[in-house]
Amino acid sequence: MINLIKHNDMKRNMTYKIAALLFFSLPWSSAGVSAQSATSSQSPQKQKVQKREAYEWEREIPTYVEQLKQELTYPMAWGNSPIKNFSKWKKMARDKVFECMMTPPKAAASWDMQVLEEEQRDGYKAQKIAFNINAYSRITAYLLIPDERGKYPAVNLLHDHGAHLFIGKEKMIRPFGVLSAKNAVLDSISDKEKAIAQEVLEDADAWVKLLYEGQYLGDYLAKHGYVVFSMDAPMWGERGRKEGVDRKKYDLIAGNMMMLGRDLSAFMTYDDIASTDFLASLPMVDANRIGCAGCSMGAYRSWMLSALSDRIKLGASVCWMITTDAQLTRRYGRKENGGFANCIPGLRQYLDYPHIASLACPKPMLFINGTKDKLFPVPGVKDAFRQMHEVWRSQKADERLDTEIWDIPHSCGIKAQAKILEFLDQYLKK
Length: 430
Fold this sequence. Notes:
By secondary structure, this protein is an alpha/beta fold.
């Protein structure tokens, strides 16, 4: 048992080092698949440097990328589309987004919710639950419920990418049943379960310290009177890979899903929509007061969900907004650019990121990006914000769109979390 824990400690420390390196040097959405592969019977071959005079790829984008971008005219964007009725435009554009998201997962026959674990925290109850997210997957999730009876506003919290797939929902809400070795709960579980639970807790604490300044956003919001829900995205945490965490396999799996006529990124969004419907069904939730929030990939998920679900009344996104022009370029010294976590096939022929986010208009939306965020160059962020403001302004709702650029790196610290709470209170607690 001691050897197992020591092994886990070594593995976890190495994971932190690798994750931190990836997080601060590469985009979370990068495709990072090695150009070389080795079989079990062969040693990896040394990568050959391109020495020929002609080539078509530099790093991970084509040499003619600027020509390709000039052909992206975004004909379905508001203002470009010939449709001048905003409601009709939203329906047409949303339908096109869903079309590009390919075949959705079949809906579950019922949610069939089950409470697996429960513990009392400071002013709220924490539950680990299981339910059917779709016809294929029964998943676990975390649910935080204020102590006093009644119907509460709720938040669907959407976790980040970070090139760290070992945990998902635990990045948002503190894990269960592993408070300390003195916790009585631990007496009823096996040594193996204890070791796993402790590893998850230590991993989550380290990640939250790295990206969220040591404060779990979900627990913070629950203390202030919100029902909080969070689940693993496909490939994260308890929805991971049988053989274990391997960042490189994400892109291969996404390719295999596409061969099946499905899109892995779209499955993530479809699940976010379904989980919001599930959240609205709970007796302690006011279905007319549901918001969503997230950082990094969680921010992408937040504005995608806000754009595509009428259940969501507002969204908050920290450190994920850009234009394709600024994302796929060498102008800002980025080493990698796109990736399968935000890849919807064919969609860029119709709409860019800010155009999709604008499908949330006239909902209240909060966007925060950082000047020190190397993943999202400020010029591209400003351009995206400008385009979104044009849409909200056209609907006389510009005061509901809050776009801010702070002097921060790629993170969602205590100040940003306080801003999210203030924004939620403004619109969900009126």
